[in-house]
């Protein structure tokens, strides 16, 4: 494949030379390309080569979303690039659980007829739930796949927050996954005593669902940070606000938004079994624990266990759920 590089800047010539060296290799049914977090310079040479090759072959590239800072520059730099997107699913979908499944279904249906290039923000395998569904469905249907890596959203987000995710044990979850949880499932999926990053908080409706889910285990006033357009020059912003205001602003959440939820103190996380263990350890530890608790044994607690059991049975007999909840702690 040969390109006319006359009149191009050095950086653009490098990309075209990379495309020549790499070639346009389409052995896989589905090629999944990472576009990086948003800066044009973060697009890898390999990703650029695949996109240039697609334009040269007249093949459409299917973007999960066209709401990404690199798209306009990409259209300018790569002549003849045909862009298709799945943006309409975000407005049409009524169910967070099926949103990415719908995209995966369409990608795999297209790939059954001809090779498909599916482009996603960031790195395809980091915080990109749609890709996991594409890979799973492709395996079921016997479709081959290949991954073209990209810079993930984590690097610029962690830079903006001055956060080392490994040092702090940070959790990572997709906003649609979190929004799809039932109220009684949230505490089993999220550990509030560890920091949390929620990716792809792409609109106000999803921000509202995320807020309600997190309110099951965090105080409504808990301060959170919404990172928007991380790594995209002057567009990058970090907004600190209480959790209950997450969906109040109409322009806060978009396709480049990541929510950071700081960890809470162990005694604040009252709905976690881990908190009970922490309280027990604190009461019984030397030398500042509770003297009465430190003296107790299994045998000395027998009378209290029997007394509490009778109270639970009484609440059950009265069908008083509020009293039962109180007795069970």
Kindly list the characteristics that best describe this protein.
Helix Hairpins; about 325 residues; 15 helices; five-stranded mixed beta sheet; Methyltransferase, Cobalt-precorrin-4 Transmethylase, Domain 2; 3 domains; Cobalt-precorrin-4 Transmethylase, domain 1
Commentary on this structure:
By secondary structure, this protein is α/β, with parallel strands linked by helices. The chain has 3 domains: 10-151, 3-Layer(aba) Sandwich (Cobalt-precorrin-4 Transmethylase, domain 1), CATH 3.40.1010; 155-261, 2-Layer Sandwich (Methyltransferase, Cobalt-precorrin-4 Transmethylase, Domain 2); 279-328, Helix Hairpins (Orthogonal Bundle). The protein has 15 helices and 10 strands. The chain has helices at 10-22, 45-57, 70-77, 87-92, 96-111, 129-140, 154-161, 165-168, 175-179, 186-189, 204-214, 273-284, 291-295, 302-317, 321-328; strands spanning 30-34, 60-63, 82-85, 116-120, 145-148, 171-174, 196-199, 223-228, 237-242, 257-261. The chain has a 5-stranded parallel sheet with strand order 3-2-4-1-5, with helices on both faces. It has a 5-stranded mixed sheet with strand order 6-7-10-8-9. Strand 2, helix 3 and strand 3 (82-85) form a beta-alpha-beta unit. The longest helix has 16 residues, at 96-111. It starts with 9 loop residues before the first helix and ends with a helix. The relative contact order is 0.10. Mean pLDDT is 87; it is low at 21-25.
